[in-house]
Write the C-alpha cells for this entry.
Amino acid sequence: MYEYTEKIKEIATRLLQDKVVDGVIGFRKGTIPMVNNPVFIKHPEQVSQLYWDSWCGVNLANYLPKFQGKVAVVAKGCDSRSIVVLMMENQISRDQLYIIGVPCKGMLDRRKIWDAVGDRGRDVTDVQERDGVLVVAGRGFSLELERDKYLQDNCAICTHRNPVLYDELVGEMVTEQQVDRYEDIRAIEALPSEKRWEYFQKLVESCIRCYACRNACPFCYCPQCFVDESKPQWVGKTIDPTDTMTFHLLRAFHMAGRCTDCGSCERACPMGIKVRMFTKKLEKDVKELYGYEAGVQLGERPPLDTYRPDDPQEFIK
Amino acid sequence: MVKNPYKPYPVKIDEIIVETDDRNIRTFHLKFLNPEDEAAFRYFPGQFAEISVPGQGEIPIGIASSPTEKGYLKFTVNKAGKVTTYLHNMKPGDIIGVRGPLGNWYPWDKLEGSNVVIIGGGFAFTTLRSSIVYMLDPENRHKFGNITVVYGARNPGLLLYKEELFAWERRDDIVMHITVDATNDPNWKYNVGFVPAITKEKAPSSENAYAIVCGPPIMIKFTLPVLRELGFAPDRIITSLEMRMKCGIGMCGRCNIGTEYVCKDGPVFTFEQLSRLPNEY
Amino acid sequence: MSWLRLTQEGLTEWLRKFGKTHRLYGPVWTGSYHEFKLLQDPGEIDWNYRNTRLSPKSLFLPPAEKMFVYSLDPNDPERAILKEAPKDFTPRIIVGIRPCDAYALQLVDRNFITSQYQDPWWVNRRENTILVGYGCTDPCSTCFCSSVGSGPFDTRGLDVLVVNVDGGFAISFVSERGKELLRREPLGARALSESEERALQDKMAQAKAAMPKLWDEKAVASRPLLDIFNAPFWEEVQFSCINCGTCTFLCPTCWCFDIQDEVWKERGCRVRLWDSCMFPLFTLHASGHNPRSQKLQRVRQRFMHKLKYYVDKYGDGVACVGCGRCVQFCPVNIDIREVMRLMVSHCQCAL
C-alpha cells in the first residue's frame, strides 16, 4: 500500500493549493517502527510529510468531533464508517469534510510482531514491507514474516475494507472478505456464567485506568465522561476491580450501535488488553436484534435512536 | 515515622452563619477537638487550610479569622461543588477536619511600616478580613500606616461580614469604601459603582504603600491599570491566586504553574512574580 | 568501582539468603510484558528482560492506596476522625532495576521529601528498600538516558550494580547500604581479573557511546521560561495527542496524584491514586474555570514541566531519565525526543 503515499500527497497538495480545505489530517512516518503519527497539514510545503503504510491503524475520525472549518481526512473503511456515525450524531457536518478514502487491506499489529520476534521483546529497529512479506530486523536478527498472519484482530475479520463515504479514493476498491465476525464471541457466550465473569475479570486485571482506549475512540467525545462525574459520582477512579470492570462494561454499552470496530482502543492500550471483547458483543447483539451495522448507510438512524413497533422485546422481563 | 502532612486535625463545627442573601456563602466557626492541635496551628493572614469533610473530600479555603482571634477558626465557604454543597448542609456539632496552615502569607514584614491599600470583590474577601482584623488589633495597629479598603459586591445582600464592615466604616483608624455594583435600596448609604471605578475615584495614595487585591478575574483585570496609574509598581501589588488543589503541600502537582506550586510557593504572589510565570491561572 | 565476579546461579543463591528478612522483587514475564513481582524465589527473575512495562515507581507510589480510614457511623464516638490506614513497610530488595529507573526515584524524591513536608509513605518505602541495579550492556533503540544526565550504568540511586559479562555477572557494591548487604552475607566471589575488567569497561563505554545526543542542557536552562512557553512549535506537537494518561502512568518520573474519598455504607477511606496532567479534569475549578482547558496547554505543560520547570526549580537535570516507555507506548507516537529536538533548536536559534 505504499503507492497510496504518493496519491495522498497529490490530493493534499491540490486541496491546499486550491484552498478547498483549511488543512489535511493524515499520517506522517513514525519516529519508531510500527507506528505512525497523525498530523495536521496546513501548507502545501508540508505535504511531503504525508505517508501511508500498514501501520496507519489510528482512527483519524477521532480528531473530527466539533472541528472548526473545512478539513480533509484520510479514512480507511472503518474510519469512514466512524465519520458517517459522527455526522449522524451532529459532531461534524458533511460540508466540512473532504474524505480521502483508502481501500484497506488491513493494518498490522505490532504486538504480534513482538511475539514473533520472541526472546521477551527483542528490540525491533526496522520493518519493511514488500509484496506481502514483512522483513523485521533488529540488532543481530532479521525475520521474514507473512503479512497476512500479523493483521490487527479487527482487520482480520473486517467486512468493510472499502470506504463507505468518500470524496476521492486513493486506489482501487479491494474485495470484501466473507468472514464470521463473531466466532470468538460465541465461544464466550457458550461459557457458564461464572466462567464468563472470570474471563472478563482476568481480561481487565492489568488495566491502569489510563483511558487510552476511551480517548482513542472517535465516539468518546462527551465533554464530561461518566467516570469523571462527581455530582453524583458513578464510578470510583482507582484500579479497584469492580470500578474498572464498571468502566469497561459501561463504555462498551455506550458504544452499542456506534462502534465500527476500528480497533483503535485495543491498539492504544499500553497494557495490551483486548478491550474489543466488550464492544464486539454489543455489536453482535445490535446486529442480531435490530439487523443494524454502524455507519454503513448514511441516513439510517441507529436502533437506539428509533422505535419500531416490531422491536424485539423478549429481554424485557 | 515522619509527621503525616495529609492528616487533618479534627474540629467541631461550632457555628454556621449565612453571609449572603442568596444563601450560597456561609461562614463556619470551627473549634479544635485537641488543644495541642490548636497550639500547633499558628498562622498568618493570607494563608489557607484544607477543610476535610470525611466521606466527601477536601477543599482549600482561605482562613478568614485573624490569628489575633483565639479559640476558633473562621472559614467562609462558597457553595460551588460536591464537597462545599455537603458542607453547607452540615450542622453545628458535626465533626470535620482541618489541615494546615498551608501556603505562604501576605508579606507582613514588608507591610509593617507601610501604608496598606486593600481592594476586594465578592467572596474573595476572606483573607482580606483576616488581614484587616490583624492590623486593627491594638497590638498591631501602630505597626502600619494608613489603611484604606475598597470592597464591593454585586448588591448589598451579597456583601460578606456586613456588621463588621459597617463597624470599621465608623472607625477613624481605617478608611473604608464600601460599594455595590447596583442597588435599589433607598437606605444604602455607601458607594455605588464597580470596585475598579471606586478605586479610581477614591485614589488611595501609592506613596510608601502596598496594594493587596483579591477578587474575580474580571475585577482584577480592570483594577490593575487603575493601580498602576496611581503609581503602584508591580512588585507592590499583591494578590492571592485560586487553583484547584488536592494535597495543599506541593506534592500532587495539580496547582503547578511554571516553577511554582500555588499551594506552597503561593497562593500569595506579587504581580511582578506573576509576570514571569505562564498565564495558566 | 571494584567488581566481583559470579555466575547467575551464584547471584541467585546469594539473594536467597535475604529471603527471611527481606521481600524480594524482580522482573518476571507475565505473558505479554515484564513486571516487578514479589518473588517466591529469586530464581524467577528473567535476566533476559529489557525493561518493565510499568516503571518501578509503582512499588513506591502505587496506582492506588489507602491513606486513611474512618467511620461515618453517627453512634461512633470516633466518627469522622481520620485514622492512618495500616501499612506494611517490611524491608525489600528490588533486584534488576535499571539505572534509569533508579535515578528516576531520586528525581521524584525532590517532590516528596522537602524541608517543610515529607510524604510518609514514600519516605518509608524508600528507606526500607534496597536497589540492586542491572546495567544495560545493550540499550534499546528507544533509550536515551545519556542525553538526560543518566547513563546505562549510572550508579546514583543504586545500592548495588550488576552487569552482564561472559558467563555470568560482574557485581559492584556502590552505597553503604549495598556494602552492608555484602558484610551481612559474604559473596565468596573473586575480583575481576585485569583483562576482565578492561573488557567490562570497553563494553560499558560502547553502550554509552551508542546513545544519541539529544539535549543541550545549557541552551535550554539559560532561556527564560516564558520564551519557550510561547514558542510556535507547540501547535504542531499537540495536534495528535489524545490526552490519555499513558505517558504519565508509564513514566518513572511522573508523580502527580489525586486524593479521593470512597465510602461504603458507614465506612470510608481516603485514597491516593495516580492522576495525569493530560486529563482536562486535572485543573478544573469548581466554578467551571479551567486554566488548561485547551489540549495545547496540557501537552505543553507536561513537556515544560519535565524539561524546563523542574530544571529551573531545582537547579538540576531534567525530570526525564530517557527510559523510552512513552516513546514506545504513546498511541499516536508523540516522541519526547522530537520535542526535545524542537526545544533545543528553538533555544539555540535564539542564542
